[in-house]
Write a structure and sequence with these properties.
- With 421 residues, the chain is α/β, with parallel strands linked by helices.
- Strands 8-9-10-13-14-15 form a six-stranded parallel β-sheet.
- A hairpin with a 5-residue loop joins strand 1 and strand 2.
Length: 421
């Protein structure tokens, strides 16, 4: 399959032609003539950018339908590839203990492999990133070698670590080293325990009567994982870092040689904790939103300290629960690029080039994928964006519902196939 993209604007440059053959960019030039049997698409001087890679999407179930719907939403937001993190294993985690591990040697007829679920099968078909939890629902170490061998060689897989200690953690690190798993560490500190806290430990929390979260929860987790990365020299992505003191720990251990990558949710750069005064369950998120001073500080870190942005999208349906009882998680992946472009680029916080690094280039580098930039020899995981256009969020489950944003995604390209929106 060959496609010729004409009149494509590459990162603010003059219009170019881009040839894609079998999903790979083979030529970029000011003038390219169409070949026989080659599809020609006129990009109409719109921006041709690498599509986003989102490594912070959470699945409330593992049904095929849920994943298909998620992918449709993701493409609307310019997200071509994603990693869906199953929530159920996070909710089932108990406090760490020192009991000997039980190893799963085989799967019985009634036991499911994590790869047997419809969502996992759909993710593999979409060439997405597979997320594996080291422990099963009984906190036994899964046979990760068997799971890795069951995946196509082209599929990237990550281990998602969450609140693991001691004897549960060390075997996982050995697996990561032997099987070349990428490590993603959730540093929120807890999941699904509503009584522990909903918003930051600030005067506003007491005024609103909402249980608060100590910043020490994330700082402790970041310190533990940073020491792990320094000792093992394994690349580790810290998921959802938002605490200023946590960034100080990261900076210090990086200078010592710790290969740490930092991912921060887009919401914490757009919204602040004042929105909680409306008790809108669509804003309930882990980690909690920050006050305006901390939000401003996080924005300064986009220049260098933050490596990757995520939508931190949760797939659960719109809930009419009261705020305290509602599940954590926000909807936003369907407007991911436009939200970031409107609030960060048009808001003069970062350049378009830096935004592309945060949502595409750096995630690809972390995963070892041959994409994330528009260059000859790279996979054509691309999106066409009308930067002068407008788009309106049409998702009642999202706090951004009906907002009019800058930029409109025209289409997504994956494996040489164009998916129009």
């Amino acid at each position: 399959m060959a496609v010729l993209l004409k009149n494509a604007r590459l990162m603010g440059e003059s219009c170019m032609c881009v040839r894609v053959v079998e999903g790979i960019i083979t030529e970029i030039s000011a003038h390219l003539e169409p070949r026989a049997h080659e599809e020609v698409l006129d990009c109409e001087s719109k921006a041709l950018l690498p599509s986003a890679i989102d490594l912070g999407v959470f699945l409330h179930n593992l049904n095929r339908h849920t994943y298909i719907h998620l992918k449709a939403q993701a493409r609307m937001g310019g997200v071509g590839s994603l990693m869906g993190v199953p929530l159920a294993p996070l909710y089932s985690l108990k406090e760490a203990d020192m009991e000997p591990l039980e190893f799963v040697q085989e799967y019985s007829d009634t036991a499911f492999s994590p790869l047997d679920y419809g969502a996992a099968q759909e993710a593999i078909a979409c060439d997405d990133i597979i997320c594996l939890h080291p422990l099963d629902s009984h906190q036994r170490l899964q046979d990760l070698a068997l799971l890795r061998a069951s995946l196509p060689t082209s599929i990237k897989a990550c281990l998602y670590l969450y609140n693991l200690e001691g004897q549960k953690l060390l075997p996982v690190l050995d697996y990561a080293r032997m099987l070349d798993f990428k490590l993603v560490c959730g540093v929120r500190g807890y999941e699904g325990r509503f009584s522990i806290g909903i918003m930051d430990e600030t005067p506003l929390a007491y005024t609103l009567g909402l249980p608060s979260v100590s910043p020490l929860i994330q700082i402790k987790e970041v310190g533990k994982v940073a020491a792990l990365a320094l000792h093992t020299h394994l690349d580790v992505l810290l998921d959802s870092v938002v605490e200023p003191d946590a960034f100080k720990i990261i900076a210090a251990t990086r200078t010592l040689g710790a290969p740490l990558w930092v991912q921060t949710p887009l919401h914490h750069l757009i919204l602040d904790q004042d929105i909680y005064q409306h008790y809108d369950s669509r804003t309930k998120i882990l980690p909690p939103l920050k006050d305006r001073a901390k939000q401003a500080y996080l924005r300064t870190l986009l220049a260098q300290e933050i490596d990757i942005l995520t939508s931190l999208h949760y797939t659960h349906p719109l809930s009419l629960h009261i705020f305290e009882d509602a599940p954590f998680g926000m909807h936003s992946i369907d407007a991911f690029f436009s939200l970031a472009y409107t609030h960060l680029v048009k808001g003069r916080c970062i350049s378009l080039e830096r935004l592309v690094e945060l949502i595409a280039t750096n995630p690809a580098r972390f995963l070892g994928l041959n994409c994330g930039v528009v260059e000859v020899g790279k996979e054509a995981r691309l999106m066409l964006v009308d930067l002068e256009g407008k788009s309106q969020v049409d998702n009642p489950a999202s706090i951004y519902h009906q907002q009019v944003l800058d930029a409109r995604i025209e289409w997504i390209m994956q494996s040489g196939k164009v998916m129009r929106l």
